[in-house]
Specification:
Largest sheet: 4 strands, mixed
Number of helices: 4
CATH architecture: 3-Layer(aba) Sandwich
Number of domains: 1
Structural class: alpha/beta
Order of helices and strands: HEHEHEHE
Radius of gyration: 15 Å
Strand content: 15-25%
Length: 117
């Protein structure tokens, strides 16, 4: 994730005295419907923090019927660096992203923000 790497590189290791979360935090979203069963956010956020990154993986419960609207809004969030895509959004997200790898075979498992937003 370009945003996370660049902000971590620029600031070096996170000062343990800094409050978390703070206004410089980078966000990764885990998007699905439902998301109550996901377990990745806690250990992934711990790994990001342990690695000196001011970042967190946040579950985002987005109903399928509003996915296009929600994704359009998420693209406007400047400190959102990427998304992990879960069911039932893998196939519809492939149609919504700006670029999808041919290897994805019409499914989107993760996406990242481009440097231009």
């Amino acid at each position: 994730m370009a945003g996370i790497e660049s902000s971590a590189m620029a600031s070096g290791e996170i000062d343990p005295g800094n409050e978390f979360p703070n206004g410089e935090m980078r966000i990764l979203g885990l998007i699905g419907d439902p998301v109550s069963q996901v377990r990745a956010p806690a250990p992934m956020t711990q790994r990001l923090r342990h690695g000196g990154l001011n970042a967190a993986l946040v579950p985002l419960h987005v109903p399928a019927v509003v996915l296009p609207i929600a994704f359009g809004c998420l693209k406007l969030i400047r400190n959102l660096d990427g998304l992990v895509i879960t069911v039932p959004h893998k196939i519809p997200m492939a149609e919504l992203v700006d670029h999808c790898s041919e290897r994805a075979l019409g499914r989107c498992y993760q996406c990242r923000a481009s440097r231009s937003g």
